[in-house]
């Protein structure tokens, strides 16, 4: 990987971190948290939401010039009007990048000027995630295979973003278990997340497997290639996240009745570990997104 590749991967990571938080945290508040805790959580993540929206907007603006530099194999191409225009207006990936910029600026405007329009911001975050499906490996397919790949990757992105992005909200909900006036609402939110989380994890695994088959099948792939090594690391990390989630749900949660303080502490530690691993997964995914599977 060249310096330009690392820059593009870093840009993708910044975008991932921001949009995953916007979508996952937004889903947790909007769909899983009952009032009055939903408003309380929304206020508590206000600054985080603004930071995430800024990160998404900055990364979206940087995507096009960085992609031009990588394609042209020169930093100078990043500012070349002809190259930028050709990439932006003559390719489907360029159209998706332009749409991504508009969506990101809209999400930023909502986060800065209308912070409590959660539904609109959540919709934009979902569309931003879907835009990734049109600029990744699926964009290189054609016909029915292209449609299947885009649809599958879209599900993978949405389910993965919900899972990882909602984890910081789990930490906040665990903290509110200590507040007598909000304990019932916090328990409800955590119970709902546990239920929906099972579906999200199942979708992540199933769509991830299908994605891998669609990307690798029919290509001359070397088992020792960088792409395959990174993919193996990603799969291992996701498996570790699932193992921690299983321990949290089926070992720690049942102990909330008999030993609540210890159970909450273990749940908190497990969730923090999941967040750390999740960020690592996003880092690996950012690198995979710019690599040729045959490399």
Automatic annotation (TrEMBL):
Pfam families: CopD. It is a multi-pass membrane protein. It comes from the Bacteria. Residues 189-288 form the Copper resistance protein D domain. The chain crosses the membrane at residues 6-32, 92-111, 118-135, 155-174, 195-218, 230-251, 272-291. It is found in: Cell membrane. Keywords: Cell membrane, Membrane, Transmembrane, Transmembrane helix. InterPro entries: CopC/D, CopD, Cu-R_CopD_dom. One of its GO terms (cellular component) is plasma membrane. GO terms for biological process: copper ion transport. NCBIfam families: copper_CopD. This is Copper resistance protein D. The lineage of its organism: Bacteria, Pseudomonadati, Pseudomonadota, Alphaproteobacteria, Hyphomicrobiales.
